[in-house]
Model the fold of this input.
Amino acid sequence: MGLTDIRERIAKACAAAERNAEDVQLIAVSKVQPNARVEAVLDQGHRLFGENKVQEAQGKWPEFMQRYDGVQVHLLGPLQTNKARAAMELFSAIHSVDRPKLAQTLARLAQETGACPDLFLQVNTGEEEQKAGVLPADADAFIAEARALDLPVVGLMCIPPVHETPSLHFALLRKIAERNGLAGLSMGMSSDFEEAIALGATHVRVGSAIFGERDYS
Ligand SMILES: *Cc1c(COP(=O)(O)O)cnc(C)c1O
Done:
């Protein structure tokens, strides 16, 4: 475990899939992790991180961004419309655009400020009640709507159901992306990023395998 190990595993998975390692971005998911662990990864030269909550990210990243050059943080978790403005200021990409109302809010703010992070639209590939994202059957229409709003849609994101084979979900996400001409695929976490790479992931989101288990207590 740890950053070096994960980088090696990504390189191997890329080689096995005959892909360039540079085509897969490693997002180190630092949510809930103590600052000392995050600093250790920054000190190893890693610069791309993922967070789940706007407020938590606001509490730690502005300071790290002052101390370390070139840091980028992506938002991976659900975004409330009333936090959209703050999210657009802090994050260089949002992976959790999961409903038309949020897309409309982001578009309005993008018009107003003249800037918008890269956006991934979240698809609820497992059609789980409790999970965010549009249903696979609604994905094409949602992509078209976001594009019509002039939003910088770069790809799709999914979080497969815990107890199902992730590959089926990764393959479905890829199919939807391909037929819509989207290059970005945000898929794969600590337990399944190698399968995601085999199926075309461009962004893998790895937390506990880099930093260790999260302590929610
Ligand atoms: C927490 C989280 C991850 C990382 O999960 P690990 O299992 O620790 O790798 C990836 N993506 C999202 C959306 C998450 O919330």
Observations:
- The beta strands are 25-29, 48-51, 72-75, 93-97, 118-122, 153-157, 184-186, 203-206.
- The mean pLDDT is 97.
- The pocket of pyridoxal-5'-phosphate is lined by residues 29, 31, 52, 76-77, 159, 189-190, 205-209 (CB under 6 Å).
